[in-house]
Fold:
Amino acid sequence: MIAHVVAGCLPHCHAMSHWTLSGTYEELGVLDYLLKEGSIGYGTLIQGIALPSFNTYKLLHALGTERLAAQGPVLASRRDGKSVAALLWNLADVPQAAGIPGASATRVVNGETKRFQVQFAGARPRQSVRVRFVDQERGSPLPAWRDLGSPQYIKPDQLKLLRQRAEILPAQQLHLDAARQLTVELPPEGVALIELT
Structure:
C-alpha cells in the first residue's frame, strides 16, 4: 500500500509520512508489548526493530530523482543521470477492524502471490540486475518473533536477533532474458527493488 500511495501522490507532494512513525500510539497509553499479531504500527517499533513498512521506505529511498515512464504497479527512475532502478509491488487488500488501531490480534490479507514480467526498454539483453525484496517474510522481524514463541517482552539477546532478521536481505544477482525481461514473483504486500547494473 505504501508504494501505491506514494506513486499516486508524487505529482502532488514534495514529502509525506505516515501518521505515526512507530508502533506506539499516544492515545492508547503505554503499550505492554513490543510486537503483536495484528498490529498496524508503521516504521520502526520500540528499540529500533524495522517493520516491512519501514523497509519499504528504504527501498523507495533507493530510487532516483528522475521518474521514468512505467506501466502497472511500478515506479521507475533514473539515478544520477545513469543507472535505472524500479520498485514493483503487489497491492493487497487488508481490511482494518473498526475501533482502535491495532486492537485486533488478527490481520487478514486478501490477495495472492503474483508473477510479474518486467521489461526494461533500452537495457541490454541478459543485462545483470540486483533485486532486493521486502514482504511479511523477508525484511520482517515477524517470522523470527513467532519462532521465539511470540514473546510479549523481549530479552536483550532476542532483541538483537529481531533487529538482524528485520534487515533487508542482500540483493539477489539476476539477469534479464534475451528480450530484456525479468520475471519477479511477489506475495501479497510484497515489494521488489530492481536495479540495473
Notes: The chain has a mean pLDDT of 85. The helical segments are 2-9, 52-61, 142-147, 156-165. Residues 52 and 140 are 5 Å apart (CA to CA). The chain has one domain: 2-196.
